[in-house]
Amino acid sequence: MDSKKKTLSRLFNNGNGISSSLIGVVAVIVIGMLVNYQSFFTISNFLNVGQQAASRGLIACGMFMVIVSGTIDLSVASLYALCGYLCMYFSNYNLLLGLLVPFGCAALHGIITATLIQKCRFHTWVVTIAMQMMLNGILYICTNGYTYAPERVDPFLSWLGNASLFGVSSSLICFILVYVVFAILLKTRVSFRALYSLGGNKEAAGMMGINLYATRVRAHVICSCMACFSGMLTCCRSMSALPQMGAGYEMYAIASCVLGGVYMSGGRGHVFGAFIGAWLVSFINNVFNIQTLFTTYWYQVIVGLLVIIVITSQSMEQFRISLVKGRNHAKRKAKLHNIAS
């Protein structure tokens, strides 16, 4: 009995924000039920919310990796759209090309981004915004701004995008499985735990013998591949690629991480926090879609406001911790001075 109490205590007092995000999801569900019970509290609506959470949540999973390692990637939405197009284009020739080329480009994107940040010491915002512009330009050059549909519909890709199990879409299943896999890896693999060390204190991580460049590359390659995978799944549903698809998804991915208790300063957070954050963002969107009192554009205002509140709370907590550390250091210094005198 005591062990169960300790486990619950750790869950709600671990400081990673999962419990507060879970409370947020429950609160939004209650609000949705009050706003429009008949439309909101249905299995089809929850599956629809899950479908929306899956597309953005896969990107949020990758975004979690780079944020916890101390950087960020603002080019994921452009990569999401480009990799979806590459999947559709190369599927005309061969299924294997349609699968490998997008992931190969995503991995290369992650390596280049990590190299510019870690080796060349460019600012992460500058690098990723530049990559975003380049990827957008490449996509519009390839599509001329029009929707692209492959000449040959590959049966496997069509099945991958539209398959379901007991009414649960393939995207939602992949969304859940990806988070489970990465939660296990982050808990059991030293190479993944190094992401926290890199984000928490880069100098200390280097002194511990962690390969900073390899760890940075790992985080950005995973982030890029998650955006690629999400884009491919989205395009496989309609067997077409839109140049504008995914616009603003990088912001929703960041919001999912922040609302899930991931610290933007790096080194703190849990991957399931990003998972719950993705659901929270999607549920808020759904509530505004089913109500008639406010315009749906208020959804963005509410999400942005929540992000500011959470980041403010994180900053205040970090200030309090640094203040306590400073006081403790001053007390130890005064005690040593008294002993010496």
What does this protein structure show overall?
The protein is mainly α and 341 residues long. 77% of the residues lie in helices and 1% in strands. It is built from 15 helices and 2 strands. It has helices spanning 2-12, 18-35, 37-40, 43-68, 76-90, 95-118, 124-143, 155-162, 170-188, 190-200, 202-207, 212-238, 249-259, 271-290, 298-340, and strands spanning 164-165, 168-169. It has a two-stranded antiparallel sheet with strand order 1-2. A hairpin with a 2-residue loop joins strand 1 (164-165) and strand 2. The termini are far apart. Residues 4-16 have low confidence and may be disordered.
Distance between the termini: 52 Å
Q: Characterize the largest beta sheet: strand count, sense, and whether it forms a barrel.
A: 2 strands, antiparallel
Regions with little confidence, pLDDT below 50 for 5+ residues? 4-16
The secondary-structure element order is HHHHHHHHEEHHHHHHH
Oligomer: single chain
Structural class: mainly alpha
Strand order of the largest sheet: 1-2
Mind telling me the C-alpha Rg?
22 Å
Coarse shape: globular
What's the pLDDT, averaged over the residues? 86
List how many beta strands DSSP finds: 2
Strand content: under 5%
Helix content: over 70%
> What is the overall number of helices?
15
